[in-house]
Amino acid sequence: MAKLCFILGDQLSESLSALSEINMHDDVVLMCEVTEEATYVSHHPKKIAFLFSAMRHFAQTLKIKGYRVRYTKFDDPDNQGSLVKELIRAVEELRPSAICLTEPGEWRVLKMFEDLKSKLPVSLTVYEDHRFLCTINEFNDWAKGKKQLRMEFFYRMMRQKYHILIDNNGSPIGGSWNYDAQNRNPAKHIPSFPKRLDYPKDEITAEVLRLVAAYFSKHFGQLHPFDLAVTRAQALSEANYFINHCLISFGAYQDAMLTNETTLYHSKLSFYLNAGLLLPIELCRMAEQAYLEKKAPLNSVEGFIRQILGWREFIRGIYWHFMPAYKEMNHFHANRDLPAFFWGADTKMFCIREVVRQTSVEAYSHHIQRLMITGNFALLAGINPKQVCEWYLAVYADAYEWVELPNTLGMALYADGGLMASKPYAASGKYIQRMSNFCESCSYNPNDLLGEKACPFNALYWNFLKQNEEKLKNNPRLHYAYMNWQKMAPDKKEATQTKAQEILTSLDSGCL
Ligand code: FAD
Ligand code: DLZ
Ligand code: SF4
């Protein structure tokens, strides 16, 4: 009897552990597009189209290589609508001897399969996901006994483990582990950025685009233009293009933000990494090689490698270490509803309008926009973490809960009380003015705190510190912020808090 290998939508890697458990000629690969996964949050149409097209292309590649693939399309009349129900249907029809699965990325999905095990007539074995560079057990061992889990120390351990940018004495190349001090330039003076690749849409993608237009047009976000890579070969072209044309300036302008310029020198590779079309280790090695060949400077290469070998793996470790309790955390008891402008309603705050617009068009915005514009606003305005997390999970094409949740709940909202970040990333309009050109197009003034045109981020920033003083005042990284607050004249402090309340009232009535 044949074995059944279930491959999920974000497991599109030929090196997948579950695939290596089967014999391509005798056993069967199962893949399915299902309503439950496409609608448990209202995913951006571009994200659904990307994943369905990438899944179909991956299935095609497997077939060409000789695998037997059973693929359920979204609109197949017999489609049962969920991963579990489709697995049960396949088991009833194929009567396999065993089922193999690589561990799902999300706790929710793993739980579904764990709960199913006892109801199945055959064994279901879950294999470790070797695509990640740190296993869940390794992370837990590293975390054991530590009072604080900090990315920087985890990252150094990972650099040593993989011997990346490490010299013959075991020290970091260049003498330092981190060159972020060189990575904070604004990009207002740069006239243009490398143009990104585009791909001709084949019949598979065209069919998926028609399907997504028919079923998901009510979800937030634009389906067209659709220019994402959907195969491993195309994703590799994206990676090579980034290494050859963008990596050189990646570091310097990593934190910069510009109107009408979504990607700058960022890689835009997270879609492909998270779906499995690219592997983290190959990207780290490609970047390291570019440094060794003197194609890119150390601050850029180290910065890029840190995002993947450090942040990405650390975030996954945090997710599995603290789930399921993590999802419920709300350190500041933030309970305001998510404002309608996150879903495209009008706002006078240009920075938010622009980031939401870019998100709607591309299902992407880069890290600092996610953290310091929409995330920062949600933190300062006390938006409920569950609603904020649901938004991030829906609107970005790279969003899966294992990576979205710690980034949003932990890094952007500090709703875990500092389990992963050493301080809240709260900032006033001054930061946004320095790092972007957004304020030049805004009807608010980033240099004004109390006036009619005062930037809402300013009063909200001080108000956030004041409201959460008991929880934050002993944080050494907020020492200067609280010192400045203490220095403020009492009447100015009072006026700032009154202003913040006015802003929150305007927010609640939809006129901010
Ligand atoms: P680059 O800047 O080019 O970085 C290279 C790669 O490093 C990325 O492709 C990504 O794989 C990895 N990386 C960088 N930063 C992080 C990070 N903090 N966590 C994990 N990986 C990282 N990333 C996701 O992949 N999915 C998400 O759902 C997601 N949600 C986020 C929500 C918030 C509130 C914040 C602040 C960040 C979130 N991130 C998420 C992290 C980061 O913003 C994206 O990985 C990055 O913007 C992807 O764009 P890029 O490929 O151009 O990244
Ligand atoms: C995100 C997603 C979507 C939109 N659709 C599917 C699908 O139809 N079939 C599938 O196997 N996977 C899909 N996914 C990805 C799953 O939600 C993913 O496997 C989990 O998020 C676990 O990381
Ligand atoms: Fe954003 Fe304030 Fe600048 Fe307007 S002035 S773009 S609201 S930071």
UniProtKB/TrEMBL annotation:
Any matching Pfam family: DPRP
Highest taxon in the source lineage: Bacteria
Stored Gene3D superfamilies: 1.25.40.80, Deoxyribodipyrimidine photolyase-related, DNA Cyclobutane Dipyrimidine Photolyase, subunit A, domain 3, HUPs
Keyword Transport: no
The keyword Lyase belongs to this UniProt entry's keyword annotation: yes
Keyword annotations: Lyase
Gene Ontology molecular-function annotations: lyase activity
Coiled-coil positions: none
InterPro entries: Crypto/Photolyase_FAD-like_sf, PhrB-like, Rossmann-like_a/b/a_fold, UV-DNA_repair_photolyase
Name under which the protein is recorded: Deoxyribodipyrimidine photo-lyase-related protein
